[in-house]
Amino acid sequence: MSLIAPLALLALTSATHAAFISGSINFSSGAGGGIIFQDSAGNITTNLAAAKGIHSWLFTEVEEGSGSFDTVPDGTSVLFSQPWIFNPSTSMTPLWTISGPENFAFNLSSSTTIFQNGSFLAIAGTGTFTGTNYDPTPGTWSFTTQGVAAQGKFSWSTSALALSPTTRAVPDGGTTVILLGGSLLGLFGLRLKSSGR
């Protein structure tokens, strides 16, 4: 038996690249939809300056998607977890999900309030996308609303971070591939020894 088979398997395994999510997706509140705020005590509030979280999301839908999200039709419903506390920053897994061929979701890691007063709120942060047939992919997001003045309407924009081929890691890390190759070579050696070669 030759060493070619284990070495070929090692080469094929190390050449495998992960399938990362690319592009961006935007949401907004559909007809009759919007958001309801809550204060630090969890009570519903119409005072945007006092808002510490989103109590509920109503009729949220996809406005537009690109890249990997191009397969999601405009107008598709988006399910947001609630409540979402943005002050202080609270992670949520998942913050939102989209049911469809790819079943996309976004796990929110962090948020920073960029600006907040009685008439405008802007928040940005980071998180991780997941999707059917995709590996977890880091991303950024932003959220804006004018609160009561906008009748609870909002805009949500999320973008996958561009990952170049040099930053795309082999799934489970390169160490796993090296260990797998070493194990295959070890098994090959044992087989040779047991066959008396």
Order of helices and strands, N to C? HEEEEEEEEEEH
Globally, the shape reads globular
Our measurement of the CA-to-CA distance between the termini, rounded to an integer number of angstroms, reads 10 Å
Overall pLDDT score: 79
Q: What count of helical segments does DSSP give?
A: 2
> Rounded to an integer, what's the Rg over CA atoms?
23 Å
Strand proportion: 35-45%
Broad structural category? alpha+beta
Task: Summarize the biggest pleated sheet.
Answer: 10 strands, antiparallel
Question: How many structural domains in the coordinates?
Answer: 2
* Number of DSSP-assigned strands: 10
Helix content: 10-25%
The residue ranges in which pLDDT falls below 50 over 5 or more consecutive positions are 1-16, 164-195
Core attributes:
197 residues, alpha+beta, 2 domains, 10-stranded antiparallel β-sheet, disordered N terminus
Overall description:
- There is one protein chain.
- With 197 residues, the chain is α+β, with helices and mostly antiparallel strands.
- It folds into two domains: 4-15 and 170-194; 24-160, no CATH class.
- Helices cover 17% and strands 40% of the residues.
- Strands 1, 2, 3, 4, 5, 6, 7, 8, 9 and 10 form a ten-stranded antiparallel sheet that branches.
- Strand 7 and strand 8 (121-130) form a beta hairpin.
- Helix 1 (4-15) packs antiparallel against helix 2 (174-194).
- The N and C termini lie close together (10 Å).
Quick rundown:
The protein is of the alpha+beta class and 197 residues long. It has helices at residues 4-15, 174-194; strands at 24-38, 44-45, 53-65, 79-80, 84-85, 92-97, 105-116, 121-130, 137-145, 154-160. The protein has two domains: 4-15 and 170-194; 24-160, no CATH class.
